[in-house]
Amino acid sequence: MPSPGHETARITALDVLDVRFPTSEHLDGSDAMNPEPDYSAAYVVLRTDAADELEGHALAFTTGRGNDVQAGAIEALAPFVVGRSVEEVCGDLGGFSRRLVHDPQLRWLGPEKGAMHMATGAVVNAAWDLAAKRAGKPVWRFLGEMTPQELVAQVDFRWLSDALTPEEALDILERAEPGRQERISRLLERGYPAYTTTPGWLGYSDEKLARLAREAVADGFTQIKLKVGASVEDDVRRMRVAREAVGDDVRIAVDANQRWDVAPAIEWMRRLAPYHPYWIEEPTSPDDILGHAAVRRSVAPIKVATGEHIANRVVFKQLLQAGAVDIVQIDAARVGGINENIAILLLAAKFGVPVCPHAGGVGLCEMVQHLSMFDYVAVSGSLDDRVIEYVDHLHEHFADPVRIAEGHYLAPTAPGLGAQMLPESLKEYTYPDGPVWSARA
């Protein structure tokens, strides 16, 4: 809590905007479960009456009509946020997160899953954006320069202690503390490895797939990803096209977006195995821990990856306990914000499983890069088999867009989380009254 007279500024508003992009027109983002997505953001702005005039910006990523529900869920949190002391929120982000997550009536809608939990994550992330801006640091460095004790205080260990205790988390962070500055310097010099899904959308022609795959390799990417799951014969052909385009030394991951039951997942991957897929992502329901474990046993040495639709830290815990995944895929806008993602990164470190985040969408690349860079600096201390997904669209709408060079995310240097959108983009794409949408009415 602030000392008397030290800080009187308060949060004066929690604004929510429904921002949608008509990506379905060119099949950008298309996959076996989402054939015509309109990438969308339930966009949050925390406004204050502080003299510095800084704001907190974040978003929950949805597709199209989902934004109606998501924006309403965020608005329901306003009474818990507006009027709070800025110093109280930014000085105790762990406490702020727990207060939002554990409201006894709103949490009933999950608990800790679905639109309400994603709403909480968006507001929590906006608070982190505000706190990092006040500190004058990008979020990855704001986190990476916290003490191990401060980081442990961000985590809600309820339901985790059978797999990860606060003492174990502190030990992980203390063991990673030596070399932090060297790793920060390395990120600033070289960046963080990336892979790209840009060639692999399911609606693209074979010619477009091959061209974009070759361009990705020429741009320095050593891994690409293809969407699969609609037709096994089409997927075999597309894998052959991609492998011929990139050669044997480039990894090709595949992503089924939850399309299959367990047995079809295993059989489908046997058909693709001659083309050496690196991992199969979301082979079945994100809630099916034992199903993922069965797929993993059957398709090895192909790796199993999942996480972008996993609702909370508890499901991640069980996937790791069951030996059901080779790759953990966190998402910046799915769980309850940065605090819960810190817990998931610590769980992955405890079990020795690399984290390769989901990105793309609207602002997901901008936000999740901070979590991977923090993981490298202060948690895992490793880049081995770790990459961040990159998709080349919609970055032009952000004030501090991601920067890619030679297949790497360049470390952000601007203060905050990177989720702040340009005023003109908000005006153009706000639904349903922005010019882009009113012209389609």
UniProtKB/TrEMBL annotation:
Reaction catalysis annotation: L-fuconate = 2-dehydro-3-deoxy-L-fuconate + H2O
Obligatory cofactor(s): Mg(2+)
Top EC group: lyase
Presence of keyword Glycoprotein: no
Cross-referenced InterPro entries: Enolase-like_C_sf, Enolase-like_N, Enolase_C-like, L-fuconate_dehydratase, Mandel_Rmase/mucon_lact_enz_CS, Mandelate_racemase_C, Mandelate_racemase_N_dom, RHMD-like
Keywords, in A-Z order: Lyase, Magnesium, Metal-binding
TM spans (from-to): none
Domain (Mandelate racemase/muconate lactonizing enzyme C-terminal): residue spans on this chain: 206-302
Metal-binding in keyword set: yes
Known EC number: 4.2.1.68
PANTHER family xrefs: ENOLASE SUPERFAMILY, MANDELATE RACEMASE, MITOCHONDRIAL ENOLASE SUPERFAMILY MEMBER 1
Name recorded for this polypeptide: L-fuconate dehydratase
